[in-house]
Amino acid sequence: MQVIILKSAEEIGDYAADIILRDVARGSLNVLGVATGSSPLPVYAALERRWVPALSGLSAFALDEYVGLPYEHPESYHAVIHREVTERLRLDPANVHVPDGNAADLEQAALDYEKQITAAGGVDLQILGIGGSGHIGFNEPTSSLASRTRIKTLTPATREDNARFFPSIDDVPMHCMTQGLGTILDARKVVLVAQGTQKANAIARSVEGPVSSMCPGSALQLHPDAILLLDEEAASELTLREYYDFVAANRPDWQR
Ligand code: F6R
Question: What does the pLDDT look like over 206-249, one tens digit per residue?
């Protein structure tokens, strides 16, 4: 796990964009895993600013979607991904996939989503945010570390966090369809971005705590190529804070 502490959300966005643009240029990134929420917005902004035609060739798979929210609702992840990713990165909408939270058969739709990811060759680079509970995707605490795309019930705390996007908490759906932790761990590279003190505890537990379903982000300790881009606040509860800076300052040339 690489822990990289940066000065601002804008720096985080640029750093993530560097990784993505480099992998696209090398030809090792064809399928991008995308997240919604506030944390990855600086990444999409940086990619929009530094757009290159090769970005249009990417396929994308979103992590999750609310169940029962109409596709055209502005806060459905179909709509958010279209607005923040498809349009800004100028992707072909036919190549952008979001779990179908309105399917008549939700279980089948979840299985089909896994098949679509496999058929596309798997996710090359997954962008992640993290919730205050430590959730990644909408894998709330006690999610199986081996879970695949399925229906989950959001915790009251997550619904409260996401109420800022809705008129009231009662409008936040209770259920979602989310890629599982096993699905996320199958991505070849993972870039998690986190900003703010409200993420500090989840980050400390994910990086330095035991691997536990009680903190789904800790599953990333099992991933061979996970990069965490944090601001000072999100890094503030890390015990080995100084070591991460030391590693960054002394990175060998071949690893830069
Ligand atoms: C969104 C997702 C969630 C968010 C998390 C953090 O697709 O999967 O795990 O990344 O809830 O949300 P923000 O970034 O809004 O704090």
Answer: 999 999 999 999 999 999 999 999 999 999 999 999 999 999 99
Q: Are 33 and 5 in contact (CB under 8 A)?
A: no
Closest ligand 1 atom to residue 62 Cα is 7
User: For ligand 1, atom 8, which residue shows the shortest CA distance?
Assistant: 137
Alpha-helical regions (H) of 50-198: 77-81, 106-119, 156-162, 181-185
CA nearest ligand 1 atom 12, residue: 37
Residue 252, pLDDT > 90, answer no
Write down the CATH number for the domain with range 2-220: 3.40.50.1360
Q: What residue owns the CA closest to ligand 1's atom 15? A: 37
Question: What does the pLDDT look like over 88-144, one tens digit per residue?
Answer: 999 999 999 999 999 999 999 999 999 999 999 999 999 999 999 999 999 999 999
Is-contact 215 252, C-beta < 8 A? no
Cα of 56 vs centre of ligand 1, distance in Å, is 24
Atom of ligand 1 nearest to the CA of 162: 15
Q: Which residues line ligand 1 (CB under 6 A)?
A: 35-39, 63-64, 129-131, 135-138
Task: Output the DSSP codes for 237-253.
Answer: T-TTHHHHHHHHHT--G
Report the predicted TM-score, pTM, of the whole model to 2 decimal places. Answer: 0.97
